[in-house]
Records
---
Amino acid sequence: MTTLPTLPALPTLLVIPTGIGCELGGFAGDGLPAARLLAAASGCLITHPNVMNGASLYWSDPRIHYVEGSALDRFAAGSLALRPVRRQRVGLLLDAGIEQELRLRHLQVADACRASLGLEIGPVVTTEMPLEVSLNRGPSGASWGQLGRPDALLRAGEQLRAGGATAVAVVARFPEDTGSEALAAYRSGTGVDALAGAEAVISHLLSEHLGLPCAHAPALSPLPLDPALDPRAAAEELGTTFLACVLVGLSRAPDLVLWPPLLGSVAADPALLRPEAIAAVVAPAGALGGAAVLAAVERGVPLISVHNPCLLSVTAEALGLSLAGAQVLPASSYCEAAGLLLALREGISPAALCRPIERLA
Amino acid sequence: MAVSSGLVLAPLDLRLKRQPGPLLAQIQAAVAAQGVPLRWAITAVQGDDLLIEAIVLRNDADPPAPGPQR
């Protein structure tokens, strides 16, 4: 059988913002199949934990780079490069507010990942005091959150870094409201992930302060069985923690390298994934107002705007992106987005695949 | 930012009238005027007005710039 040469990869950003109720990707790692498809089409996909985290479920693919949201923003803006690694040493940061039995569950998940997956995990640091996570919503209905003790989070992170951790998995105790309408809506597939905003705040805060790959898993008590559980939310109800996917994702998350570098030797590293190599960004058509998308588009990166309904209507038209010179390629699904990525990777003009096709003169 | 017990997270709702030119710098400047930007997004567009939800990091000792808090 003849083997065709492999085309160079097309480094692609995949953004599915968390906490805005995206129909695909707004639940429990239900964006993973789309990520796998886009990774196959592009050969190199850079995406954030919300897309990849399915609590007890995960998928490890060498073509997918797991990059925390704020680091993804900075990569898109050109102030970070990414260095793929064979393995990270994942420090575990536990909120002092987690009760003893639930804390032990998390430590056992970490042990399981060490023994059965070969991950390098440690040290373990507990915050000096409870982090006091609270949840709220913005005027748009998007999920946000707060920490009562951000200083405790940062000091614990510093301890982990000083102890040799090269990535940090943080577990914060989240408030319970098992009878809430918001939770019922989420479990039935109609609502917004109420935890998402606080989770993003925690990981953004830690990642920016430490300069390390970071990701977050909430600590919550298991929910009672729900026969009407939506498949997209099901992954979060398989076990007692949300931690396994975070540990797997971080175990091969790329190092974050300041860009442009001060040292020429860093710039010459052939393994680096440089921000100027970003060749496409894929995002929901109504959620284009985030830092990564705007940064990429303003640097001339083509945007594949995918029909993926959510709370927001911040579209390319509303933002005037095309008028500002951005190349915006609409896609009706992630399947179509994959086709567009293949076209870009093969050097095929997307316009040639659409009808009608206008004359040049 | 130095880690002190006075660190607080402050949620914001901003209305920014967009000016000609790239949006990113305009938004970053507006959010940064209120504290160290942690996370933000445009959540609605009303004509030339951008509605932005954000969260910034501040030190309790530093007074915020005038602007709408949530």
---
Amino acid sequence: MSADDQAHRTVSAGATSPDPEQDGRKPAAENRSQTVLRQILGGSSLVAILAVVLSIILGGILIALTDERVSETASYFFSRPTDMLVAAWEAASGAYIALFQGAVFNPRADSLALMFRPLTETLTVATPLILAGLGVAIAFRAGLFNIGAQGQIILGATFAGWVGFTWHLPFGLHLLLVVLAGFIGGALWGFVPGILKARTGAHEVIVTIMMNYIAIYLVGYLLSTPAFQNPGSSNPISPRLDDSALLPQILGPQFRLHLGFLVAIAATYGVWWILNRSTVGFELRAVGANPFASRTAGISVTKGYVVVMVLAGGLAGLAGVAQVAGTERVLTGGIAASFGFDAITVALLGRSHPWGVFFAGVLFGAFRAGGVQMQTVTGTPIDIVLVVQSLIVLFIAAPPLVKAIFRIDQKKKAKTPRRDNKGRKAEAAGGAA
Amino acid sequence: MSMAATVTDVRPSGTSKNWKAPIGFGIGALMAILVFAIGGPATTAVFRVSDDSDRFRLADIALPADVVGWVVAVALAAIAAYSFLQVRKGESLNRWYGIAYAVLFVVGFLTWVVGIAERPSISLAGLIAGSVTLAIPLIFGSLSGVLCERVGVVNIAIEGQLLSGAFAAAVAASVSGNAYVGLFAAAFAGMLVSTILAVFSIKYLVNQIIVGVVLNVLVSGLTGFLASTLLSRDSATFNSPPGLPDISIPLLADIPVIGPILFKQSIVGYLMYVAVIVIWIGLYRTRWGLRMRAVGEHPQAADTMGIKVNATRFWNVLLGGAVAGFGGAFFTLVSVSTFTRDMTAGQGYIALAALIFGRWNPIGAFFAALLFGFATNLRFVLSIIGTDVPSQFLAMLPYIVTILAVAGLVGRARPPAASGVPYVKE
């Protein structure tokens, strides 16, 4: 918290200092960046919980509306309304129960260990989400929108996979190099938007989106060359990675959960440390809060953009490692699934705080793992998970809307940035005292 | 997109001489010399201007690939050298040199890539007509972006607007049995997505990029969910829309090359041309456009002059959604006859790139979208005539060009100053 206060002081100091290059546009820019920060970092946990509840209810309504039995019973709604209501309740609750059983605990399994197997699946799916989510989040904190996690995951997986099936090295060393290669692959794909943003001002949203497509076609091309294909096959699938290159399964062979999850925990701690305890992190946050003030304070904004994008890409690259060396064990064109895009919602839900991202990743991992189960058991398409996830993020981004829906007293509603700044400053002062 | 503006201001002020253009031209000329000239095949690349079925037939264009390669390479090198001299003298380069350079490069590339193919002969008319067709949804999408960004709202949700338009068009046209009902439903669906974008970004001041990204996920999930429940359960009722036929204008449609492009289109295609012209005139020649641009460039000043900033933003974002919705209708009413999940396949993001490439100008966006359509269609055409160039590299081209464009190699692109900045009355 104290580092946060420091950042605020730096920002306000920069705002009052005269700067010849800051024209009339500056206050608007400052307001904007603070608005962004407030949306990503601010808000209360009550709103977060209500947002989740509201989204799940809306998802349930959608499931009920499209259910076949509901539409059948709706035809005689006015003679026996209970039939339709029961059918609607059963459709929605049935889907969510299947989702829960697929994500957390399955009471019908044979042994106690297997009953908790869904939970390990959730954590397995959560691993790349957390790692890539951290990559998106750290860029957010420096004021950059990294939409390119998808491409960064693909490049990380490609580099890591190539090292994994081409080189044959002893245990330990091989895995280490695989992880390193994945980090470098992702970092490379983050470096390009970073350096272009820093040197030419190219908007990182556009560049990262373009880099995603280039990555997709690049891995498609590589998988069409003999160097990346199984010998004697022309399928776009790589050979299996060497055993020495795989992330070991930490709960034994019956669970897919692999060492990548511990890497994700370590990375979460690492990002927290970088952001809150290191000079680099302080500079990154300062650049994100107000690039003008940061430059006035002697922080290199261009360096900040490059550093944060390399870190962000590297983290997403680690997500690629988790995929290629942990879950899939071969490199395919679909290695990144949609993790790179889900990572954006994970970072938003986690409000770009490392541990927030961690828990958001676990939540979305649960949705995804449970969604697969739900689709097989009740036939509810897994797309409902996307709907619920995006609704959660939308509601969390707009606390006044959630408060209005649940009729929560809106005394603290901050409509103008000016009032809100005062509030934040008072808060910061209180924290310092 | 104001982030770009932010950084432009932040970076240390360099020298007044901008060496980007000469360096970019030089690299391109070097590539041309190595690939088009030295690597030019000793074949004749044939471009068929008319097909056998055409009423008026013109002779085919046959170009010796290696000779054209050398001519183009030398011309490109000359432009690069001239731009180098101009910049050293401290003078700015006329933009027509850049355009000539691009055209020459495309000619050189086409001749080379057709020349090295197994059957070095392509239909020029087909190539261009196909490019326009593929570009139609992109053009609608980037026009939507123009309308939104010009009033200061970043529209990342183009993808969602296209997808919702495609979905609504399929369902409404199937249920009503009338493709034109589908067309209006598509515009309505696009507006619906825009409404969420406008409410969250204008009323609740949520960051516009965040709303856009999330909206795309929401629409993808929602349409995917409905496609695999309602639509797949009863596809005869919900997912078999009647298509919009091509309307061919007699005589004019028979003009070689440009006839099919301009005068043999579906109603969506004609609407596209109308939209480009109307939005261009509206933006630069009417009070509506002046107000839009004022709100997008300097909302405080616009407000002082009595323009209702947030209302202007709200209605234009809605209009943008409707325009993108028409583009979405193209997918299910013209291109394919059923809705499939995620059928827009990221075209909304490409439209966004076309918008920036086209410098927030409707005409610019039109040509940028055409370039993307051209690149996509070229890939199809080349795979038919059998080429050694991996299709993935051809597919990458537009994205690489876009990165070069936003990096400023193709000239300075400046977004509307207040784009992305919520306006709060002081």
---
Amino acid sequence: MDKLEIRNLTKSFGHSEVLHDISFTVRDGEFLSILGPSGCGKTTILRILIGLEDAESGTILKDGVDITKVPSAKRRMGIVFQNYALFENMTVLKNVQYALVKSASTKDTFDKEKALEKAKEMLELVGLSEHLDKKPRQLSGGQQQRVAIARTLALNPDVILFDEPMSALDVDTRLSLRSELKELQKRFGTTMIYITHDQEEAFAMSDRIMVMEAGDIHQIDTPQNIVDHPADDYVKKFVINNINTKINSLIQFARTEGQDS
Amino acid sequence: MTGTRTAAGKWVPSTALKILLCIFWLFAIILPLIRMLSTMATVNVANIITSARFLRALGHSLAVTAVATIISVGIAGLLAWCVSRTNLKHKAFLNTILTIPMLIPSISHGMGLIIVLGANGWISRIIGLNSGIYGFWGIVIGSVMYSFPVAYLMIYDVLHYEDGTPYEAANVMGLSVKDKFFAIALPYLRKPLISVIFATFTMVITDYGVPLMVGGKYITLPVMMYQDVIGMLDFGKGSVIGMILLIPAVIACIIDMANRDKGNANFVGKPYYVKINKVRDHIARAICIIMIILILLPIGSFAVLGFIKKYPIDMTLSVQNIEQAVHMGALKYLGNSLLIAVVVAVLGTALALFNAYMTARNKTKLSYVLHLMSITSLAIPGLVLGLSYVMFFKKSPIYGTFAILFLVNSMHFFASPYLMAYNTFGKINENLEDVGSTIGISKWGIIKDVILPQSSGTILEMMGYFFVNSMMTISAVSFLASVSDKPLALMITQFEGQMQLECAAFVSLIILAVNILLKVILYAAKRGFSKIN
């Protein structure tokens, strides 16, 4: 069953077309990464999917229903940004509670107390129970991103979009957050679309990867198939070579480490 | 673009609001200004600007302004260095004291100077200076008193936020003090210093308070404009002088914008590390103490003068001046001033916030136009704005009412608070509205619950700026106030005309007291807010 079906999206800013007639589908419950260099149009796709921007032409179907003209809040989707976009004047707990109380996008309505319980529960899931009364700026980057994830998950959306959520974080934090995110996905069964320019991240997390360049889709397939059967030279160069370089440097690193000890 | 509401839902309301704001600016600033400038078609401009009287005034203005600007920026730079590049204690306190002169009208500085160094000034009598300090040097000293705190704040900010790493690199390389100054400090300071110099120059050349009080026969352009318009109702000549006064302000504004845009590359720096050096600190302390005494001398003098019967004939303490001032309506005018200051603080701040939201957080091409319109007031001296308003609004129903005073002050002081809000809004996370719209919180909801609470400190500062300046302004309002809605500060010009220095001193003192009180309240409110947040 397809969760989302995107048909013939085009989008221009001024005279430059950033998306050329893009079509693809997203399966229910899958983790799809959109991988490409900066400026390839991946963020634009995300913003169109959730309704923050309008496409010039094209259709978006969710569960078979046309949502192209439906306002963001009614699409039952959530988004997590690279810069967290937390409410700095509220505590961690209040960030999630506020979203629940004010939200017009959940099925259930939350009064303040119900929202408080739900917020606590979600923050516990992301391991922040000890930080409920802190302000966002008192937390590390990884913790702030966990708050943003909890805030999004709390509203129980059908699809969550991630716009390079980890590119501001250090390597260790990224690694642990990756596996936590996968855990959460398993638990909630939420469809996730994840934007990144980091090949390793895409390969480690995704059910399928969509490789993009300059407004075009080059390939959309499982990590294994992309490695085994890259669609064209671009995929080979941008994906496979990069991965190989990384693996080689890791092997090199392991060797020298081994010699030292 | 279509005119219907789209899924993203951004176009329709925000563009309409921006157009509405642009129309507002058209009527509040641009058209009045054009109205004033168009008067020049009806007068013989060449005759006016080649007349001996005009040329003399122009020469006087340029001479005093040039000298006052150099001294003012020099003192400001020295003091900013003394406070920011030493290990003196109580820096916040020093900053407060050094900027007290910003809380009283320029004309009060002139008055303070007369009390100290006038023909009968108490220091004049001690040192035997019989003729007093009228004319060129009087205006220079008064203008320095009035303008240096602004220059000080600007330079202090620049020094305070200067990146320390180049100096540390230079120390490691073993560069001399001289080399460090020419290789690091000067290139870094050059652009901000140009802005400071032009801002100070503009402030001094457009001021009429100081030269009116201590100028004597040394007439400057703003005084000439004031006399021509108020005394002779010669709007044509006033407009020509107004246009001349616009020139330095426009140049200052353009330079400032050019500097601002490029200077915003904020990389992560390290604060300048101040080494331990007792001798340097002692010298800096001595300089600060001397300056503080010099600042407080005239202010303290008129504080005392307000309670003296008739200086220097009858030196007994009395409340006679207070009675006299009250008799002449000081309390009523104080009420007017408070009303104007409060309304302007609220309306001006609300308008500035609204405008800044549209330009900083809702960026389109129209935002840029709106931004330019919002900062034009930076380039319009109060006297010029006042004259423009007289001519443009004369036949409108708001003329002669409080409404025009609210409006003219809101516009006159708009640019600085607007820029404060613009900078603060620009720094707040750009995705908040997007998050809101995906979870179904309206833009207004995000503004009310997230953006405004995060900006509470800035909002208080903006209100303070509008309030303090509305309390003490005598420029734009001088052409617009009527007997019934006259603000308190204009009583000083009235008393000056009647040679009642003691009453003028008392009125200045009230303004100072109100403004200090407001600063204290703001300080307490800010601490309260930072505790909540």
---
Amino acid sequence: MSTELERTVPVTEEAELERLVGDRALSTDDHKNAPAFVVRPDAVQDVLFDLRDEAGFDHLSCVTAQQYEDRYETIYHLKKYDDPTQEVSVVVPTSTDEPVSQTAEPVYRSADWGEREAFDLVGIDYEGHPDPRRILLPETWQGHPLDLSYDQDKPQLVTLAEHANPLQEDHRDAETDTMFLNIGPHHPATHGVLHVKTVLDGETVADVEPDIGYLHRCEEQMCEQGTYRHQIMPYPDRWDYTANMPNEWAYARAAEDLADLEVPDYAQVLRTMGCELSRMAGHFLALGTFALDVFGDFTAIFQYAFRDRELAQDILEDLTGQRMMYNYFRLGGVAWDVPEPREEFFEKTRDFLDGLPTKVEEYDDLLTGNEVFQIRCVDTGILEPEIAKQYGCTGPVARGSGIDYDLRRDDPYGYYPELEWDVVTEDGKDNYSRVLVRMQEVEQSAKIVEQCIDLLEEWPEDDREIQSNVPRTLKPDPGTETYKAVENAKGELGIYIRADGTDTPGRFKIRSPCFHNLSTLAEMSQGEYVPDLVASLGSLDVILGEVDR
Amino acid sequence: MTGPVPLQSDGETYLLPERIADLTGLGEFGIAGESIAALLGAALVGTLMLTMTAVAGPWAKRKITAAFTDRIAVNRIGPFGLFIIVADAVRLISKELIVPENADRPAYDLAPIVVAGSAMLGFAVIPMGSGIQLADPEVGVVYLFAVSGIASIGLVMAGYASANKYSLMGGLRAVAQNVAYEIPLVVTGMSVVIFAGTLQLSEIVAVQAEPLIELGGVALPSWYAFVNPFAFGLFIAANLAEVGRNPFDTPEAPTEIVAGYQTEYSSVYFVLIYLGEFLHIFLGGAIIATLFLGGPAGPGPAALGIVWYIVKIWAVFLLTQWFRSALPRVRIDQLIEIGWKGMLVLSFANLVLTAILVGAIA
Amino acid sequence: MIGLLKSMATTMKHALDGNTFTVEYPETTPDVSPRFRGVHKFSQERCIWCRQCENVCPNDTIQIVTDDQRNGEQYNLHIGQCIYCRLCEEVCPVDAIILTQNFEFTGDTKDDLVYNKEQLKAVPWYKDIDPLESREPDRGSWIGEGEGAVDYQ
């Protein structure tokens, strides 16, 4: 792995940033991960434009909104695609009486959905936002759930009559030749409960609007009610429920940064191995379901992919005791060492890895080498890298558009820096490249797992520490804030935590990669055919559990 | 060697209704008796085909798909799970029949019958061997293609009458697809007619019985699959599109338009449409067998004809399932493009070449 | 065309080799890992009614009722609500609540899945695996010598 990072952007020391923001900054704040500038609500675009164009912060990673006793606050977490370790946060406080703030949407397209979510859950209005609607909750919802004055106990029934009538636009319109079509929420191709409002011109897609929120489970709020030490960790598994373990790392990384916890090297190796196995399982599923979308039936490739996922799950079951909802990580370590007898576990894992090349060959024969598959996927669902960056795309979706961005390498954590592996990118920008990226990432993950096995096998017996010394109750200092991200199977999964002095987080914000990847669907599929829309949706590999949280 | 269908002394084919009439003595009752005999014959053939469909739909398809995907599939009820057929029939028929509020009633109800019925009509002229053939008109091939084309009317009726956008899209796709592939199908079929010099199916079968070449004492019959493999390949591809199977199953396209024209059908209507689909696969198989694989011809006595005929159409069925397991679905625009720009051109080229070849030999 | 043929060859190879990766479930039961987390089993003899499991449970699955002398009266566990995180087993100082390997249980209604302590005691071992013998619950993270206050009391 290359540790040399290309720095094409000017060196942006904190002092330089301060000069750039100048007196538009009311004050500075120190988030644990990055410097933060507090900015007036009407100077948001101004500052963000400068940070993007002058300092090169081209990645709006996350928009966090929260309410304090005396003010609302929006935080824009900025990063660079070239070097995500360079971060800066822009904090925009607004008054409690009139929470209005300038929108960041003209600067970063990804702020569109981000600010809609902030409005929906916290209740900040964004001036100039092109589409100021709720995004996760129904249109008729009363109040904003993460608002301090929100009555949690008041039941809200959204009756069918109050919903927007999906048949409303069904009538014939003499002016247009288009047809409005609801794809989902119950449709074979949406892999969950996603509703895509589609306008068709014949078979051609004229307009697409994903409607999300059907699987909203208040994950952020649940985490705000759990104790740092134990009660939060079971839940990350339920965000991206196909490749679960890397999600745990996102919380672990943020919380360990917040409370300054050390993790023993041995535990880091175990974490790395578990996450890569889980990533393989997730990619197998992504491959299988994508094939399902393109082949059109539960055919061979889907079953073969599931068979291989099963093998990875078996190994993870031996390690963690569960097939999907592992709850394997603990703050400062992991829950279990490798099961006894160790040799048997290593052998089982090695068998799986040894069998992989033949299986990958089989996938090549069945999928990527198949001419019909190629004519279906090549040059469909084009996602230009500039657009991908604007929307905050990460993971295989970004890498399929040629964006060389992988937090495992670029913002190293765990044991990744010590291991030999490559970041896979493809320049095709189409559905086919995204499939290729996933297939090659499976091989890279196998490489990582293999090295981890070797390391674990040789690890001296008296140094197998799986858990560092962590107090039973964690109470980070009030006001400590951090935003940390890891690379899960779908992309950059970030967690923002603000401690409020108790043993539960004051604000817990999840930056979901699928959320941002899904927002590009319209860009990808407009002007293409319905089958391409379905294929593009499959190639984005969105997991609705993570989109809606 | 005479044709697989025993001939009467005057050279006319001895058809199944006549045979029944003679056997039962119904022939003595004039027209009425012959009609009853014809109905009995039709019932016999219909039962045979429906039985095969019943085996194929709930059982064989599952078993075959399972084999391709390394699974076990139905094996609980009866030997090899065969009684699942009964269980499935009961299950499907006892379901509630839900008719959409805005459905266009007579068309909505008729569509399943048209889909299933049109396929049944086709079997009337197929020589199935062992003396089973209901009718043998001189224009058999034309009749065959005509009735199998009726199904697309049923599909568009189903799609339009369901008052569902997905159904409508499925119906439109079905029509576009059938129009695009019917022509290459018929044109390729015509090349066989040029070879055989007749439109009568029993004659086409009889002509194919002549040996093509001798290879070490084994005579290779002049089945048109051997005479013109290119036309055979074309015909199989066009037939796949005609019956709407992978990689050409765009009218249904489960992941795109839910279930296409059959989205709104449930219970008995669904059974009829499902039945119709399988019957169409078998009819496609029967056409392929008759035009290209020597009909019911095969080793052994002529009485075994029906066995060979069943083996051949099941082979075609297996082939469709094999394609289904391995090939992605093409997009609708690609499908039409392949149809009009590829298949049509190739099929006409094949026709012209065949005509020149046959003319030169003559 | 070669790609198509290769695809077809691949699936045909699978069809002909006769291997299946599914099993006939009730007859052939899957092997579960000794660490597998299934239905809970409760031991009243061991339980000291310390309520640590009730406190640590992330979603209030466990409900303990004691009298005013802190003698245990009820131990209810909503198996349908449980997320199988195993924190109750980890926190238990006397191994009174453990997660067996048993994953086969049904209920007609949600209420059927609320197990009281008698039902929890009667949960059978799966394939006679006693989790306590086959695995050693990780207490490391609970018995740390950190400076944090010992709560859960």
